[in-house]
Amino acid sequence: MKDVKTTGSAGLNDFGRAVKILLVDDVELFLELEKTFFRRDDVDLLVAGNGEQALTVIADEKPDLVFLDLHMPGINGDEVCRRIKQSGQQLPVVMVIQQRSPEDEQLCRDAGCDDILFKPVRRRDFIAAAGKILAIRERILPRIDASLRISFGLQPKKYLENFSVNLSEGGLFIATGAILTVGTLLNVEFQLTGRTGPIQSVARVVWVNHPDWIRRPKLPVGMGVEFLDLGSESLEMLQLFVEDQISDGRVG
Hints:
Elements: E1 4-5, E2 19-24, H1 28-35, E3 43-48, H2 51-61, E4 65-69, H3 77-86, E5 93-97, H4 102-111, E6 115-118, H5 123-134, E7 144-145, E8 149-153, E9 160-168, E10 171-175, E11 185-190, E12 199-209, E13 222-227, H6 232-247
Parallel strand pairs: 2-3, 2-4, 4-5, 5-6
Antiparallel strand pairs: 1-3, 7-9, 8-9, 8-11, 9-10, 10-13, 11-12, 12-13
Helix pairs in contact: 2-3, 3-4
C-alpha cells in the first residue's frame, strides 16, 4: 500500500518534518475509516494491511506513531509491537482490539504497547490517543479566506502590521516575514470587514511557514496563531463573521 498524505492543520515533529502515522489493519474498510480522522497536510498517513507490511513500512519510513490491530493474518499485532519494542526504537504503539477483551488487553500490555483503543473506534478516542502521544491538535473549526490588516507584537506599543490569509474563530494565519518561534505569546488586533470595533486577543504561535522550510506551499511565508482570550463579545462577532463568509462560499 502507498502512504497517503491528508489535508488539514497543525503538527510537525521535533525534526521539523510532517508527523508520520502508520495504520495497520487487515480490514480495508477500517483503514479507510481511520484515514478520515487525520485530514491534515502536516500529517503523512501510512497504511499497511498486515504485520509483515507494517515492519517493512516502519523500517523504510520511520513513522512517529503506529495504530496496530491485534488480530491479523500472518504476524499478529502483539508480536509486531513486541518486535518494535525489543528493537529499541522509541516508537509509540497504540493497539486496537475488540471491545473489552481482558485476554486481548493482557496480550497488548505484555507486548509493551503505549495505549489501547477498543473497536468500534470512536473518533474522539482516536484523536485523543494521537494527541496524547504526539500533541497533535485536531482542526475542528471552519476556516475562511480573509485578507484583513493584522496588528501584532510582543508589546502593545511595538506592533507590526501585515495581512491575514485565513481566519477561524480559533485563530488565523498571518502573512509575514517577521517569523516568531512556535509557542511565542503575542498580542493581535484586527478589524472585521463591515463590523464595528476591533478584535483584540492574546494569541500563541502554533506553526510557521518559514522561508527555509515551507510546510504548506499554498500559503505564503508567515505563521499560524491561535486566540487565547477572546472576550465573549469579540467571539460572537467573529463567529457571525465566519458564518456569513461561509454562506458566501469563502471557505479556506
